[in-house]
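Input record (Table S2, row 228):
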Amino acid sequence: MDKQLNLKNIALIGRTFEEYYNMFDLDDLNGNEIILDVASGVSSFCAQANRQGFNVTASDKIFSLSPYEIEQKCKQDLDMIIKQMPEIADLFVWNNFKNIESLKNQREKAYKLFIEDFRKYGTRRYVPVEYPVTNFGNDQFDISLLSHFLFLYEEHLSYDFHKITILELLRITSKEIRIFPIVNLKGKKSGFIELIMRDKDFGCLQISINRVRYEFMKNGNEMMLIKK
Ligand SMILES: C[S@@+](CC[C@H](N)C(=O)[O-])C[C@H]1O[C@@H](n2cnc3c(N)ncnc32)[C@H](O)[C@@H]1O
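Output record (S-adenosylmethionine complex):
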């Protein structure tokens, strides 16, 4: 059987601004775009990006919980993942992170920056949303970013869930949607990629798969770019 990270549910762990920057090739942004981070969880992207002059709103179903509750849950998830890492270390490329210890330190840095910012700005910046349903307005954002939510969790989230979520994001996003990675938890290209490419409901969109410079999970070095 193929090795993979074993998760009962979608994990509550977060990545940093630098990781998002490289995953989504953000060099082309000029700071004027209104950005939505979809299922942003305990990532520090929103906190760090806003400090650097970007305009980012974060959204996740966990934002209805208190900072304390979120912190307890993400500590548990991080411990559970770090315990599994020695068994599955060969599924990953150890360039950005030298070893499991430095991975753990980065993930802790991310969630601590997030918790600090969440305590400060609350739901003004961190909007509780349970996808696929949102209360955002039509074209409220210019760009939506999805990191480690769709495709990766194809075992947990059906094709219909993927499709309805993307359709909702197309309603609330005026320019484009970027999704990273496009592999599942086994590091294999998600079967939903082809389904989306062939789905006639997405026929009027420009959908491309672009190589990016970030790769932690082996083969996880491509993002899906959907342009309206
Ligand atoms: C692996 S984390 C990714 C966090 C962040 N995007 C990153 O890459 O660092 C996945 C996130 O998806 C969130 N999530 C799962 N199902 C969701 C749903 N239906 N609506 C909103 N958020 C959801 C979880 O709460 C969790 O924070």
